[in-house]
Structures are given as C-alpha cells and as structure tokens.
Amino acid sequence: MALHGRKLYDNLGKRMEIHETTADSRLKVYEVGYLLLPTIAEEHLAAEVQNIKAIIEKNDGVFITEDFPKLRPLAYTMRKTATGSNLKFSSAYFGWIKFEVNPSMIPTIQAGLEKNGNILRFMLIGTVRENTLYTQRVVYRPAGEGAVVSEKGEEALAEAPKEKMSEEEIDKTIENLVVE
Questions:
Q1: Do 86 and 79 meet the contact criterion of CB atoms below 8 Å apart?
Q2: Residues sharing a CB contact under 8 Å with residue 35, sequence separation 6 or more, in sequence order
C-alpha cells in the first residue's frame, strides 16, 4: 500500500510541474515608469527611450503603449552615484512603457534597466491592459461668488438664496435666449 501511495505522490508531483510551466508560459502585462537624468540633451532622449525598449524587446516583450519622457520637477532631490561622485537632481525626464511579457523574463529586464547609467530611478509593476490614466475633472467657479470651506477642508461654493420668478419673467428670459 505504501508503494501505491508513493506512485500517487509521484504522479501528483508531475502534475504540479506541468501546471507550473503552463502558468509560467502565459504573457502578463507590466509597466515600467522611469526617470531619465536631466543632463541628457533633448535630441538624445529618443535614443535613450530606444535603449530601454531594446531591453524589453530582447526579452520577447510586446509593446502596448507608452508616454514619451517629459522634463518634470521632482518632489524631492534624488541622488545618483556616477563616476565616483554623488550627483543631486531636482528634475528628471519622466516616461513610461506598458508591455506584455513572460513573467520569467522580468528579472532579466530589471537587471538590464539597473545597468543603464542614464536612468535615475525606475519602477517595474504588474498592471492591466486597459487604459488606467487619471484625468482631472474641470471645476467651474463663477467669478464673484464666495467659497465656503467644509469640515473636511474641501472648498465648496456658497449657494445663493433662490428667488421665485414670475411667469412673465420666465417668458422674457426664454424670448431673450431664443434666436430667430
């Protein structure tokens, strides 16, 4: 009976190995956000982005979308050691690339990005294929009306008391709005 149980476990082990390799061979979506050094001339930015894309392509990555880097101020000063000295940066070129790749290739991609001396910092995360961009809502504030601050510290417009209009005033307002 012990022999029979051993065969059962051996068979289970083979099933688990097959399951692991099947799950590992599926492509997953990732996004790399990166900060390039601000010392890079703007005419060389495209070449630097191409270097990052080459690392992904070399590891069988398929590109989904990207945002070309733009110079942005940083929230805090970042340091990078280069050629034996500490350099401080208060701005950098920020860009990102969304791609699809086999998860087993991520450590290789990460190592390639770490070797690139023109990358100040990067973040490689798993994400979804759909567009997840954040867009700001447009807030309309009429001129001359006062703002009231709520308990949460949020600013809101003060509502003016509403006056009832007569039917004649409503008709005049409608006539003024209608263009013949």
A1: yes
A2: 74, 78, 92, 93, 94, 119, 120, 121, 122
Indicate whether 71 belongs to any domain: yes
DSSP letter for 90, please. Answer: E
Structure tokens at 101: 């790749």
CATH number of the domain bearing residue 112 = 3.30.70.60
Task: Calculate ∠ Cα 96-100-106, nearest 5°.
Answer: 80
Domain around 127 = 25-157
Residue showing tokens 């070399």: 58
Number of domains in the chain: 1
The model's pLDDT over 36-60, given as tens digits with 9 standing for 90+, comes to: 999 999 999 999 999 999 999 999 9
Is the separation of the CB atoms in 103 and 61 below 8 Å? no
E strand or H helix that includes residue 71 = strand 62-82
Query: pLDDT-derived band of residue 130, with 50, 70 and 90 as boundaries?
Result: confident
pTM: 0.60
- Whether residue 19 is contained in a domain is answered as no
Nearest to 66 by CA among 26, 100, 112: 100
